[in-house]
């Protein structure tokens, strides 16, 4: 397992990924001064995740560009109950380049970790209409977020000049279509227009776009209205499908009259129609199961522009919802040889098991007419695939955070560990 490449935001919060901010990123190409709009902070406290949607205004100033943000700029922070944190800012800057020519810059900024000063580090995707700055689209860039307090931040977008290779564009993630999504959950009425429409045609057939919209729901299941005007963010790169990502929050009442909020992040592609794989968070306990359910979305124009969200028709999803998502630790009642468990056998459940048979694999017992491993190996023993890389075995069976060819990985005291073989 090569953790140097595992800069996945899903483990931020369990322990911080420390990224050196000075590792080649020495040239500041954009300095973005951000001011949060305190009247436009929207939150949803869900079963698995808490959402913060923060609108902001910003100005940028550097030797390359001067300008201000267009309407619709926002950051969404997802604070998962298991400790993960995701943060993604989207904004468009409008201004002039160093030659005073008109310039528009689209930026999607994803947090990837922290530096050794505990400042968030981001990986920006940039699309610009300015030929002079088109090199930014494939430059090796990294952002450093400096929190100035009271809703003010400075984003330093740094360039690794020493890396002459062009950074590839993001790859389109195609929504899942392998299941039968035939249970409709929500229908939302969408009105496109108003503030928030901006288009940034970039070099190499790239495109970044904001499409402003308002939204509501008027079904038996859910009646509500969007808390603000929102933005559908579009991106497209050469020889790839156009992606969409609409983030919005609707507040209203369910069919029992319960007040609730629903955060929707509708991610997908627009190729001969919208095809999405939504992410949903809600503070309605009755709908908590939706946060874990497989989801799919599409659109129709029969009764105006409507977004439809579906799941699979599996009653076990909603008839027995687990709101708190407990992850029990599995006690290890006995110790047995990993050579036995590697063959698919379990350790005997009783620590006082009787040894029936002994061979080169270890000592064997019998429970319920089945062979089981009976003693002779320390509880913390795990595969040499872990220990040969310098990692310890986990001290007990617990949550599996990552699986690869080496086996199941856990985390103890902020460090990766190999899950014991008899878990």
Automatic annotation (TrEMBL):
<feature type="signal peptide">
    <location>
        <begin position="1"/>
        <end position="21"/>
    </location>
</feature>
<dbReference type="InterPro" id="IPR009034">
    <property type="entry name" value="Dockerin_dom_fun_sf"/>
</dbReference>
<keyword id="KW-0378">Hydrolase</keyword>
<dbReference type="InterPro" id="IPR002883">
    <property type="entry name" value="CBM10/Dockerin_dom"/>
</dbReference>
<keyword id="KW-0732">Signal</keyword>
<keyword id="KW-0677">Repeat</keyword>
<dbReference type="GO" id="GO:0016787">
    <property type="term" value="F:hydrolase activity"/>
</dbReference>
<protein>
    <recommendedName>
        <fullName>CBM10 domain-containing protein</fullName>
    </recommendedName>
</protein>
<feature type="domain" description="CBM10">
    <location>
        <begin position="381"/>
        <end position="420"/>
    </location>
</feature>
<dbReference type="Pfam" id="PF02013">
    <property type="entry name" value="CBM_10"/>
</dbReference>
<feature type="domain" description="CBM10">
    <location>
        <begin position="335"/>
        <end position="375"/>
    </location>
</feature>
